[in-house]
Amino acid sequence: MLRSLLLLSGIHGRTPHVERGHEDKIAGHKYKCINKSIYYAYVQGPLCDWAVEYLPQSLSPNVITLLSGVCYAASCVAFCGFAGFDFHTCVPAWLIYCVAVLIQLGLTLDNMDGKHARRTGNGSAMGMFLDHGLDALTSVTIVFLIGKAYCISNSAVIMGLFTLIVGGFWYMSLESYYTGCMNFGKFTGPDEGQLLASFFCVFAGILGCEFCKLSVNIPCFRMGYVPLQLSTVIVCVLLVVKISETALHWQDALGSAWGSAHLQRRFCRAFFVIQVAFIPLLVGVWTVYILSSQEAWGPLFPLVYTAASAQFLQSIHSLLICDAAAAEFQPIFRNQVASWALISANTAALRLTGGALVSELGTLVIINLVSWSSVICQFCSIIAELMTILDVNLISVKHQTKRDS
Which residue, 84, 164, 176, 368, has most beta carbons within 10 Å? Predict the structure, then answer.
């Protein structure tokens, strides 16, 4: 019944995402990860090892994964419920502290699902896709939560944080696709990064809303002094370590990918260039749109952020399923290209005629509806397809020989 509902949930249900001939690779998929994270080694790892011993064998690892996603979703709903959808309304300190705890709870559950899958012998490509697919959603919600907690109304700063966090996740997944192994250094986004996010929340709660809204003057080339919120400066300073780690990871990922056997095949180097360029292209298009528009982006920017997030999620889901199936990767840009064409035409009409084809609000609403519908349909149809190939259920345990998750 659940499989039928998933297949009927979207337009992608009739289109197979796993190429014919790759079904056996899905069944034999083994997730490989090297995690050198300090926080994981000394805190998260031992905590999860202890906690999974108390979980019943009948509990599906996918349920733990979904509960992890619920923690982040609940955090966003709570912030929006108490402080609206914008990035300048103050969030109560007690709620910020609660979200800091929820982030750590979500991280712990995210680390527990794989351990429980190996413990019960229920690891599969579907579990990997579900886990990493929700991790991608987590990466965009973390930026949203930090922006809300610190009342960062500067859209350029939010897009900068977005680029850093989703870029790290994208290139890490790209490295896994080309090398067959996901590598985490001593300071990683999934572990230390989320610990840092919790610290940001606690710090914002201690400082208070009014302090976070204070402005400081920063000298800028040819622009004199530019007023920025003090919270923006604090977040940017604290992210220096993360930026350094991400840059090193990108270098390793791109170097490993460029020399891999995948790129020896015909046209693969062209696909590789597209893959590498995707994040700069995605962020660049939306940044140019913001800069070229004549609208005040304070109230509209959250819609820009959610649209960019949806387009990132659609592409990362395509990459993840190709990784699980060991298939050739052909990025799905249809939705992105259509959206970018719409905003380009709108901007051109505004500049040439003085009137937009569609209002900024209407444009963003349309793009969000199309993008998020596409993300949900694609995600559900991939899960349904994997369930059919592997003959497994999403929330029940199948007793089988143990294998790596």
Answer: 176
Section 324-343 average pLDDT? 72
Residue ranges per structural domain of the chain: 2-390
For the chain, how many residues are written? 405
- Quickly list H helices, 259-359: 268-292, 297-325, 334-353
Of 243, 236, 240, 215, the closest CA to residue 227 belongs to 215
Model confidence, pTM: 0.84
Return the exposure string of 311-345: e unless at least 16 CB atoms fall within 10 Å of the residue's CB, then b: bbbbbbbbbbbbbbbbbebeebbebbeebbebbee
Rounded distance between C-alpha atoms, residue 268 and residue 264, angstroms: 7
Per CATH, the number for 2-390 is 1.20.120.1760
Q: How far apart are CA 153 and CA 106, in angstroms?
A: 26
User: Which distant-in-sequence residues (6+ apart) come within 8 Å of 156 by Cβ?
Assistant: 287, 290
Residues 257 and 272 sit within 8 Å (Cβ to Cβ): yes
Integer Cα distance of 141 and 119 in angstroms:
30
Each residue's pLDDT tens digit, 197-253: 898 889 888 888 777 777 777 676 555 666 666 666 666 665 665 556 555 655 665
